Amino acid sequence: MSIARPYKQVDVFSSSPYTGNGLAVVLDGQGLSDAQMLNFANWTNLAETAFLLPSTHPDADYRVRIFTTTTELPFAGHPTLGAAHAWLETGGVPKNPAALIQECAAGLIEVRRVPGEESTDTEALAFKAPPLVRTGALEEDVLEWALGGLGLKREDVLAHQWLANGPNWAGLLLRDADLVLSLEPDYVALAGLEVGVIGLHTVGERRAGSYDPAQREQRPAGAREELRPVSDADARRSERFGNVVTGAPADYEVRAFCPGEGLQEDPATGSLNAGFGEWLAGAGLAPESYTVRQGTRLGRAAILHVNRDASGVWIAGHSVTCIDGVVNFP
């Protein structure tokens, strides 16, 4: 006999459906075995699937277990915001009005509400990045592995660092956003390595309305940078979140490669951007507040807001529910 459980499919890091990173959320995971959870996550073929459970910690509002198509993660960013969005939308009321507390295998994660400035603006959520459990420069063989798999030269990389906070990201700071967008990874060569890249959008030609589409033909094959003029709503968000380059789609472009998973390139990655925020802002390699665009080469338009303050690094973004119903488990 199958049991119907409430279910949502949420698009994270976007206020427009189907342009961010999809997340499956089973709102009642009680009684499901590890095998059932992993099997369902594999079937959804999404980057991650979240299962909500009663908290086991007195300070937590609920507990979440997060699965990729192949394994369970102690923490991941877009499932954190997507699960919080789904829990609140279903009527969840935080114990502390200032922030909800999500329990996961990595510990307690604080999630704040970020109200919209205008009556038509949707509410955003921001999670506090958990501590990095592995840092430091990449070992020489790991760096060579990443360079070879991404087709990069040593001089293309300005800095590199381990960014492990659940997933074990190898992070590369590249010279600019164009290079990030031009990458054509060799996923066979990268197998076994989770690698994220970030590059700055320069001001010049990125000013709204000044981009020359003919320049695309001069870029490496596959570099689809679909820039658009900044709207009034974008300008408001830029001012609010401290966007540095207001004429560009975002301050930075990010891509995340995870060979072996259902999606070999992740459309929007909270954990990686949390790691980048802790590393780059902490080392003075990036401002303490900036915006990121991710998923461009996949036809997505995810926007993430990164802010470092005295309490830590916060990753903010919008979420929208795309599917609302039930899922049956045997």
TrEMBL record:
Q: Which domain of life is it from?
A: Bacteria
Q: Cite a single GO MF annotation.
A: isomerase activity
Which InterPro entries does the record cross-reference, listed alphabetically?
Phenazine_PhzF-like
Where's the active site on this chain? 48
UniProt GO cellular component terms: cytoplasm
Residues covered by region (Disordered) = 208-233
Return the PANTHER family for the record: ANTISENSE-ENHANCING SEQUENCE 1, PHENAZINE BIOSYNTHESIS PROTEIN
* Annotated protein name in UniProt: PhzF family phenazine biosynthesis protein
Q: Which species does this protein come from? A: Paeniglutamicibacter gangotriensis
Instruction: Specify the taxonomic lineage.
Output: Bacteria, Bacillati, Actinomycetota, Actinomycetes, Micrococcales
